[in-house]
Amino acid sequence: MSDTSFDYIIIGAGTAGCLLANRLSADPAKRVLLIEAGPRDDYHWIHIPVGYLYCIGNARTDWLYYTEPDAGLNGRKLRYPRGKTLGGCSSINGMIYMRGQARDYDGWAQRLGDQNWSWEHCLPHFKQHEDYYKGPDAMHGSGGEWRVEKQRLRWDVLDAFAKAAQQAGIPHSEDFNRGNNEGVGYFQVNQKNGWRWNTAKAFLRPACYGRPNFELWTKAQVKRLLFETLPDGTKRCTGAEVWTGEGMESAQAAQEVLLCAGSIGSPQILQLSGIGPAALLREHGIPVVQDLPGVGENLQDHLQIRAVYKVDGVATLNTLANSWWGKLKIGMEYALKRSGPMSMAPSQLGAFTRSSPEQPYPNIEYHVQPLSLDAFGEPLHGFNAFTASVCNLNPTSRGFVRIRSPRFEDAPAIAPNYLSTEHDRKVAADSLRVTRRIASQPALAAFKPQEWKPGEQYQSDEDLARLAGDIATTIFHPVGTTAMGPDDDPMAVLDGRMRVRGIAGLRVVDGGAMPTITSGNTNSPILMMAEKAAEWVRQDARH
């Protein structure tokens, strides 16, 4: 750390940060520093797909956040995993490759008045880094860093659920990533030959590690951003103050600081640095650098309602993994073939459909698993069962992320405010009815599915919404806390190129920049956003 002057400083070596480090350090004339609060991704459970079970809730790989008690969840708190290691959330997530729907991006473009965010203009940036297992076509790219493969397993109970969904009117889909993801089928995953493919492997190794102009700091947590006042009175971000574990270091950025600490970390760092709602900053004794009331607000997330069905006459992971012989068989299959349950993404089968006939587009997503448990991290049940988790893709509930103190070591308050609107409670009730309709189809009849949670006795909208609050949990997709918006939106934190309003030399490039949540899993859309940001950073450097 003898020379701490760089052209670009990237804060957070997660999904966006790793791609940006790769793209910006490709110019040998630019010095790039990548700062990660967590350790290197050398923990073996990161790379074995089922290892997410051992990474979530583990201080080695997870920030160990919890939400505030949530009225929509009947007062419950939720564990709120966020990746704290190289690769960030791509090292602990569900590995599902999902872009969302074309309408998501067309909606952003309309909101921002900028066609750069339309589906037509986003698709090339998805394809740019993609390595699709079937090869290139109009919708997919090949030869990029981000590997997309088929899953290496199937289950009879999931095949039966897929047939039942089709009998209930949901079409079969081979590919959810062509602009309209309506249908049912197995998810495609970010894996390579049965191993997790995180963004550190994809974008840092081997390219960045071999570049003399690239520097990586791990176990280094940003305390605050640094600023200078320009002659016209405006502020410019010039670097960051970083706790290295041994002391504070100040790193300087000649051109830009790119904040990629995620939808929780980025608003926290901005607030600690004096950028955010002025009243909140003053409450904690932080001098106001820029009053931006939207920093930390507009939190959106996908809440999954986990309906559990007992089944007979078909194997599920519950009984397979609850015997020493089953565990041995699972381990041997992975060791010899890199397939089977140890290669599993947390959810294998997916479906997108409408919660009710009047919905104009697919507004709910299923993650279906051949297992059941009381809560994530708890033991599997002793009976055979499957779980059909369903989430509202476009929730109207909004929450917040706010610092609790001026100390960078203290976790912020996270309050998603799930099910806080009548719309979201209605979609929750309707989506449980869709689950029941699928479970009642002939394709599943041989397995005698029995609703264990929430229970068939609950029928009214009010009952189902309340029960949803009892059994629902996050699906780990927080976005929107530093949202892009038009100039006339007082809550917009960023402009359409992800630049922080009123502060030169500073962008936020992560899920927090999304104005509204995408209709599906959020990891790969964030990579697309980082691809765009890399282009804009290079363009601005030339002017």
UniProtKB/TrEMBL annotation:
<keyword id="KW-0285">Flavoprotein</keyword>
<feature type="binding site">
    <location>
        <position position="222"/>
    </location>
    <ligand>
        <name>FAD</name>
    </ligand>
</feature>
<dbReference type="InterPro" id="IPR000172">
    <property type="entry name" value="GMC_OxRdtase_N"/>
</dbReference>
<dbReference type="Pfam" id="PF00732">
    <property type="entry name" value="GMC_oxred_N"/>
</dbReference>
<feature type="domain" description="Glucose-methanol-choline oxidoreductase N-terminal">
    <location>
        <begin position="262"/>
        <end position="276"/>
    </location>
</feature>
<feature type="binding site">
    <location>
        <position position="511"/>
    </location>
    <ligand>
        <name>FAD</name>
    </ligand>
</feature>
<keyword id="KW-0274">FAD</keyword>
<dbReference type="InterPro" id="IPR012132">
    <property type="entry name" value="GMC_OxRdtase"/>
</dbReference>
<dbReference type="GO" id="GO:0050660">
    <property type="term" value="F:flavin adenine dinucleotide binding"/>
</dbReference>
<dbReference type="InterPro" id="IPR007867">
    <property type="entry name" value="GMC_OxRtase_C"/>
</dbReference>
<dbReference type="InterPro" id="IPR036188">
    <property type="entry name" value="FAD/NAD-bd_sf"/>
</dbReference>
<comment type="similarity">
    <text>Belongs to the GMC oxidoreductase family.</text>
</comment>
<dbReference type="Pfam" id="PF05199">
    <property type="entry name" value="GMC_oxred_C"/>
</dbReference>
<dbReference type="GO" id="GO:0016614">
    <property type="term" value="F:oxidoreductase activity, acting on CH-OH group of donors"/>
</dbReference>
<protein>
    <submittedName>
        <fullName>GMC family oxidoreductase N-terminal domain-containing protein</fullName>
    </submittedName>
</protein>
